[in-house]
Amino acid sequence: MASAFMTRNDIQMLKDYVAAPGNFGQNQAQSSVRLNVTHSNLKAKFMEIVMDLHMTGVAVKVKLNTHCGTAVGSMVVQLKDEDGNLIATLDDDRVLGFYSPYNGCMLHIIDTDPHSLSANGWLEDTSKVQKYVMSDEDYAKRENTYKKFRDEKRRVDPEWTAEKELAMRRNLPYAAPSKREAVTDAAYMQEEARSIDVGNRCEVDPGGKRGVVRYVGQCEGLPLGFWVGVQYDEPVGKNDGSIKGKRYFECPQGYGGMVRPNLVKVGDYPPVDDFDFSDEDEI
């Protein structure tokens, strides 16, 4: 009878499978090619897709339709090299292999439908989408909200914070930030900042939050002295790399934070691995 547990070797094989490049880790067949895909109505190169060299131009369009939504009849597909130079425009009846594409080439989709959902930025510009704004009254009626969770925690522990909760869940020591007098020295913590470089992996206290150093220096709108901008691995930050309207680095909203250099430890701090089960051989 097969074991219901996964050994460490099984876990490693699963991790290797998930991390393998393209097509979710599957081996590439000799008759296939990996092509990047771009779209006339979208700004970014948005996928890598595996195509069989025996597919006709129509079959290529049908497969692309399932990924981008552009109708087959409204699609012109160009084959380009990795530098964006045009190789050919695909013919509906000619097989893809006729054009001798290779891994890294691009398929560029030209959407000729002026009423396409992707036209005029509708799939990328979120400002065009009407946002739902919940009233305070409706929010108060909802169960399991963060506000109710926070209020209950603070009822039990008036000094509760999200950082304290995170440290507790990770079984890490937590020290509440002490109240300090106003800083009057513009070079405050400059020495501590000298050993921290942009690009360093780091861990930030309290809470042992891990991330990458994205900025080191002074910050307008914050107390005098030196600060370290960190992009966290998890959404435990407070901003997107901008402070009071001035941008210091780029990161997703909620992943950025500015902290004092004495709270930052740089070194070999890889992202937390949810598949790491210490020395256990089975799970």
Task: Describe the strand arrangement of the main beta sheet, using strand numbers.
Answer: 2-1-5-3-4
CATH architecture of the largest domain: Roll
| Tally of structural domains | 2
What structural class is derived from the secondary structure elements?
alpha+beta
Strand elements, count: 12
The CATH C-level class name of the largest domain: Mainly Beta
CATH topology of the largest domain: SH3 type barrels
Q: Radius of gyration from the CA trace?
A: 26 Å
Distance between the termini: 17 Å
**Major beta-sheet overview:** 5 strands, mixed
Identify the overall geometry.
Answer: elongated
Which parts are unreliable, with pLDDT below 50 for 5 consecutive residues or more?
17-26, 277-283
CATH homologous superfamily title of the largest domain: CAP Gly-rich-like domain
- Mean pLDDT, all residues: 81
Summed up, the helix count is 6
Return the string of H and E elements: HEEHEEEHHHHEEEEEEE
Name the beta content range: 15-25%
Set out the fold topology.
Blueprint: H1 8-19, E1 32-39, E2 47-52, H2 57-68, E3 75-80, E4 86-89, E5 106-111, H3 136-141, H4 146-156, H5 162-169, H6 190-194, E6 201-204, E7 209-217, E8 227-232, E9 242-243, E10 246-247, E11 256-259, E12 264-266
Parallel strand pairs: 1-5
Antiparallel strand pairs: 1-2, 3-4, 3-5, 6-7, 6-12, 7-8, 8-11, 9-10
